[in-house]
Amino acid sequence: MRLPTIRRRSLPTVAGAALVAVSVAVAATLAALSGGHGAGTGPAGAGNAAAAAAGQATASMPGGIATTDGSAAGEPDSAATGSPGGGGLSGATPAHLVVPDVIATVAGGVTTADLARIRKLSGVRAVLAIDGAQITVNGTRLTVLAASATALRPWTPPATAASTRIWSAFQAGHLVTTTATAAKARLAAGGQYPVAAAVRARITDGGTALLGVAGVDGVVSAAEGSKLGLVKNVAVLVNAPAANMTELAGQVQAALGASARVVQLVPTTASTQLPVDDTAPSAGRPTSYLQLFQQSAAQYCPGLSWTVLAAIGQIESADGQNMGPSTAGALGPMQFLPSTWSEWGIDGFGDSGTPDIMSPFDAVPSAARLLCTDGAASGGSGLRQAIFDYNHADWYVDEVLTLAAEYAREFS
Q1: What's the pTM value of the predicted model, to 2 decimals?
Q2: For a Cys staple, 98 with which of 3, 154, 310, 319, CB 3.0–4.6 Å?
Q3: Structural domains for the chain
Q4: Distance CA 44, CA 282 (A)
């Protein structure tokens, strides 16, 4: 029996949401698998190798905000906690977000040797192999992907990555779906439903989350996917922020062979078209990272999109969770060099005394001030140059803009 092809859409230019791309490249693989339930098995051990590789890579990734529950952008997650250096702010993600640059599929699955070759490519910093299949849940055919929480979470959209509720359910073996899928399959959070996969079982619905996937209906943990018999390693995601994307796609193709399908996920140049909040700055002191970025942009650099500050805060320190010092000696949530801080550091949001490089209430407004002086509020080439001045690397500019676009889609 031939599995139906997942609905496709044009490739978006997003970051922190690898699953957006999965539906495009995984579709061809799932459609070719027989059995209708993903009972096939891939190369032994490749899944564990990929999870280990992703865990090692993301641990060293620079790097998230997100203050919302995965079920709806803008809805606070009551379980979210502040970061170690967050000054009591809520909403920091517990992991550095990873920008997916390339996705590839191989007939029969990605092997351990395939992953090893990809990891050796110049500029590659993280890889993630994903299991998947089409299964039936509560009488409805769904496309479901699987990976460990540690491996998958950094690659998901910011709002989903930040939700402790979603990931607690995920790790408990529950099925997390999109809102549309829950309605289609008549699923309610906490309910138990029959599953027809490689085995017949029942699964608990873990609620809904932003997956950012056209055609992928839900995700489960690697352990649950194994129980259900999902196909091992149907796709691999690759992060290589410093690489030329066209060259990277060609190198991945060469590493996997002519039969592999390789899709480039990010544009050569990221767009500078980002939302700007023209309303007056809110009064009072921010209580979450989302508010901090929004109010800092509005108050300290009118015309600058708050999403740029959010992206820089994520890439530099994962919202204060990696305060430094870096190898270059940079410190704090926005990773200022002390020499730069002495010139640009300011007290923000009513603080007084000596500006504190480690305080997000001082560091984020100071970053807004520095970006503004360099022309960020003008947008376009001025914004690109200002980000380049913040960190002198073209790949860094594109990484910031791509992640900023993801925040714009989820929170604006």
Answers
A1: 0.67
A2: 154
A3: 19-61+96-264 (no CATH), 289-411 (1.10.530.10)
A4: 55
